[in-house]
Amino acid sequence: MKAIIIEDEKLAADNLQALIESVDKGIEIIARIESIRSTVKWLSTNTCDLIFMDIQLSDGNSFTIFEQVDVKTPIIFTTAYDQYAIKAFKQNSIDYLLKPINKDELALSINKFKDLNQSQPALDIKALIESIKQPIQYHERFLVSAGMKLKTMKSVDVAYFYVKENAVFLCSKDNKHYDLDFTLDKLEKILDPNIFFRINRQYIVNIDAIENMITVSKSRLQLNVNPKANEDVIVSVNNVHDFRIWLNR
Fold first, then answer.
1. H or E element: which one contains 188?
2. Is 101 exposed, middle or buried (0-12, 13-18, 19+ CB in 10 A)?
3. How far is the C-alpha of 114 from the C-alpha of 105, rounded, in Å?
4. Which of 8, 81, 128, 208 could form a disulfide with 58 if both were Cys (CB 3.0 to 4.6 A apart)?
5. Are 64 and 55 in contact (CB under 8 A)?
């Protein structure tokens, strides 16, 4: 049996693949895909028997995949969020697993897939998704400390988030810096992707904070941000293509 994993966090994908292989050695993971764009491209020219799909990817809600490509393959959804309609998935023979994935629950999901009557008509995934999907509520504000005082900072007032000495900070548009109890991986999922973009492992930038860009090489861009950062802000080679698409929305 051939399966694919759609998951944008490498550690989560590694863990899921290890669990799948320990539960059923007959399942071969033939691809691991990290974004909506790459998933649409892969599904347009390839097939598999089963899909393990994270609902919230770095470039948006994975439900939008079904608006771009016709998917007939059974799906086991995974997510860290419990606000989605779990009951609807269960009733329609599509399973749904909350992270961290439990090995026993994963085994039940795989067995459920195997027990499905393959002669039944294909599930209309598009209709199901339209009936249950909800607008994503992106993070609107952060609680930050200023000395002994606490204050809220609106997300739209953040110029960029960055990592320094293994800690995460935000820089406000008025050049105030506050530490946060978030990882960049977590922030990437809860920030509005129309406003924020993760350009590399150290920075997530607000589009309003980008003053201009400099071509460093064929495949690298340097951003001049406002407020000015204390180091060069470079779009990683792997993100340049998607970054250009993001700018052109």
1. helix 184-190
2. middle
3. 14
4. 8
5. no
Q: Where does 141-247 sit in CATH, by number?
A: 2.40.50.1020
**Cα dihedral 231, 235, 237, 238 sign:** positive
Q: Assess whether pLDDT exceeds 80 at residue 215.
A: yes
pLDDT class for 137, splitting at 50, 70, 90?
A: confident
Residue 207 CB partners (closer than 8 Å, separation 6+): 195, 196, 197, 246, 247
Cα 72–Cα 41–Cα 207 angle in degrees, nearest 5: 120
Domain range annotation of the chain: 2-132, 141-247
Beta strand 196-198 with 203-206 is: antiparallel
In degrees, rounded to 5, the angle at the alpha carbon of residue 132 between the alpha carbons of residues 192 and 93 is 125
- Residue 86's Cβ-count burial label (10 Å; 0-12, 13-18, 19+) is middle
Question: pTM of the full predicted structure?
Answer: 0.54
Contact 242, 35 (CB under 8 A): yes
CB contact set of 136 (below 8 Å; sequence gap of 6+): 56, 61
Cα 84 from Cα 131, distance rounded (Å):
11
Min mean pLDDT across 88-92, 130-134, 211-215 is at 88-92
